[in-house]
Specification:
The complex is a heterodimer of chains A (294) and B (273).
Chain A lengths: L1 H31 L6 H5 L10 H7 L2 H33 L6 H13 L2 H11 L6 H8 L11 H29 L3 H9 L4 H29 L3 H6 L11 H11 L3 H33 L1
Helix pairs in contact in A: 4-8, 4-10, 5-8, 8-10, 10-13, 12-13
Chain B lengths: L2 H29 L22 H8 L3 H32 L5 H11 L5 H13 L6 H5 L6 H11 L4 H9 L4 H12 L1 H17 L2 H6 L8 H11 L4 H21 L1 H12 L3
Helix pairs in contact in B: 1-13, 2-13, 3-7, 3-10, 3-12, 7-10, 8-9, 10-14, 12-13
The chains are: A mainly alpha (294), B mainly alpha (273).
Chain lengths: 294, 273
């Protein structure tokens, strides 16, 4: 009996914090999304009304929600494969027996990960300045006309994707590197004796051996990228022409600029449901392909 | 392809990658020492013609950067200390203490990881508003005092401690607190260092929640202060680069000094289950 009490005493602080400041708000968010909580209710709680699913219904009819979702999906669908490709490429380079000065390169490639998004976004804004930025200057030498990176609705999101890849690829690189190091060298040696090319070795040894890591990393990266917020906040303020307004940016504006907390909660929940569905589909697809392979 | 070409190619690519990764950081540092307006010229200057500390002076004297820096240190330090203690206790309990429903509770916590933190933010803001913590340091600190990730990390590590150590101490009549403080904590030191670095970096770099809960400049942390400066001074590249240096340098230095622990934790945390 006493033992039980000791255990709960050790657990109590963490559980109270998580319960009070995370689980309770999550449940409350669901409740909030069913009300018309707005600036009037903020001033006087008696103005609050239960509106059932009408926040969700109204959101699904708003073009802004769909465009925000579209931009977020664009960011995820292009950004995740690019990030993972960069991570895997860098990890394979670092894992190569021919690579020199590995600790230095590993640290250098990882450095952007630990930096602050806001500070890096500020730098990026300067690097991709239309007039004085280094990016256009270098491209100018290759005969490319100046691109209005962050001011052109077609270029703003690709620029943010480029930024996200640069900032994040080092994280998964470390995980892939550990995965690559766990693959027995004998496999490659046997394949070489059988005359397998570098590509065949990659395709038939590296990828299958790395598959579980790839799946886990892709799910984590997808969830992370769905939560796009700070980059557009600092680099474009959601513009130009709302071309970089992500779902979370919409939630932030709806909630903390217009104080429509009910509707903003509905945005948050829809994002959660979408993220959940996407990762569930990814898990299922990977299980199926696993089943097909064996 | 001969071995020599392959070697040149691999190392060439690594050098290229390192340049891409580090160039923005080095250029940030260089531009931060330029005279106002110098960076807005063509071709983009790589090094300052007359290096100056004027931007830093401007930031600390007029733009309140000193306050933001202290706020960041205070908030991140408090989050690190508190979350470290709470996560250690809970992680140890999940690993080594017996109680009814232990596995189920732990699974439930892990399951909660699928919920993005932002879902909680709107009601959390209202909750903190009612208890009067909006626009205070506590408003930023309190929700970060425990993390599922931290509990998970500690539990994984603490499971490796042999039960005999604690049993022997219990037979000798040591209380549970003493066992935790004098036997378990010393053994958990490596994971404590890892977790402390993780928590500090995460708290330092956090943006969305502090942006929401801090409504007045006097409590701004560096990222919030920098973002607000960037909106006012979007043309002053030199000043903004100096602000970025102040924001990033502490965490970069911390990472470089403690790299081994950080990368170990990253791998531990990514191996689920």
């Amino acid at each position: 009996m006493n033992k039980q009490r000791v255990a709960w005493l050790f657990l109590a602080p963490a559980l109270i914090v998580l319960g009070l400041f995370f689980l309770l708000p999550v449940v409350a968010a669901l409740a909030l999304s069913l009300t018309d909580y707005d600036i009037y209710a903020l001033a006087n709680i008696h103005d609050l009304r239960f509106v059932a699913l009408s926040n969700y219904w109204l959101l699904l009819q708003r073009p802004l929600f769909w465009s925000a979702l579209g931009h977020t999906v664009y960011f995820v669908a292009v950004g995740v494969p690019l990030s993972m490709g960069a991570s895997l490429g860098a990890a394979m380079l670092l894992n190569s027996p021919l690579a020199r000065m590995k600790p230095f390169f590993r640290t250098a490639l990882f450095a952007p990960v630990v930096t602050t998004v806001v500070a890096m976004a500020v730098i990026w804004r300067y690097l991709f300045n239309t007039k004085y930025g280094m990016a256009n200057y270098v491209l100018g030498h290759l005969g490319v006309h100046p691109i209005d990176w962050l001011g052109d609705p077609h270029w703003a999101m690709p620029t943010i994707i480029l930024f996200a890849v640069w900032k994040n690829f080092g994280y998964n690189m470390i995980i892939f590197l550990a995965g690559l190091q766990a693959i027995p060298i004998d496999l490659y040696e046997a394949a070489r004796i059988d005359g397998a090319s570098a590509w065949q070795q990659f395709r038939h040894i590296t990828l299958p051996m790395l598959a579980p890591t790839l799946l886990m990393v892709s799910i984590l990266t997808v969830s992370g990228y769905f939560q796009l917020f700070a980059e557009p906040y600092v680099m474009t303020e959601g513009g130009p022409l709302q071309s970089t307004t992500s779902v979370l940016y919409l939630m932030y504006e709806e909630g903390f600029k217009w104080w429509n907390l009910g509707s903003a909660s509905a945005v948050a929940f829809l994002l959660f449901v979408i993220m959940f569905a996407v990762t569930a589909v990814m898990l299922r697809l990977s299980r199926r392909s696993e089943g097909a392979a064996t | 392809m001969s071995a020599r070409t392959a070697k040149a190619m691999i190392n060439g690519l690594l050098i290229g990658g390192a340049v891409i990764a580090l160039f923005p950081l080095l250029w940030m540092l260089s531009v931060s020492f330029m005279q106002p307006g110098e960076a807005s010229s063509l071709p983009p200057p790589l090094l300052p013609s007359h290096a100056t500390l004027g931007n830093y002076r401007e930031l600390f004297v007029h733009a309140g950067m000193g306050t933001y820096l202290l706020n960041s240190l205070l908030v991140s330090g408090a989050i690190t200390l508190l979350s470290l203690s709470f996560n250690l206790m809970a992680g140890y309990a999940f690993a080594k203490l017996r109680f009814a429903g232990r596995e189920r509770l732990f699974q439930a916590l892990i399951g909660a990881l699928v919920i993005p933190a932002q879902v909680a933010m709107l009601p959390l803001f209202l909750l903190l508003k009612y208890i009067g913590l909006v626009n205070s340091y506590a408003g930023v600190i309190v929700p970060g005092m425990a993390t599922v990730f931290g509990i998970f990390l500690v539990r994984q590590y603490a499971r490796g401690i042999p039960d005999e150590l604690m049993e022997a101490a219990r037979i000798d009549g040591a209380g549970e607190w003493r066992i935790f403080l004098q036997i378990v904590m010393p053994l958990l030191k490596p994971i404590m260092v890892t977790l402390a670095i993780f928590s500090f970096l995460a708290a330092w770099n956090d943006f969305m929640w502090p942006l929401i809960v801090l409504t007045g400049q006097e409590h701004y942390t560096l990222p919030i202060g920098l973002a607000s400066l960037a909106r006012e001074h979007s043309q002053d590249s030199e000043l903004m680069m100096a602000g970025s240096v102040v924001t990033v340098l502490p965490v970069l230095v911390l990472f470089l000094a403690m790299q081994r622990y950080y990368l170990e934790g990253l791998l531990l945390g990514s191996v689920k289950g």
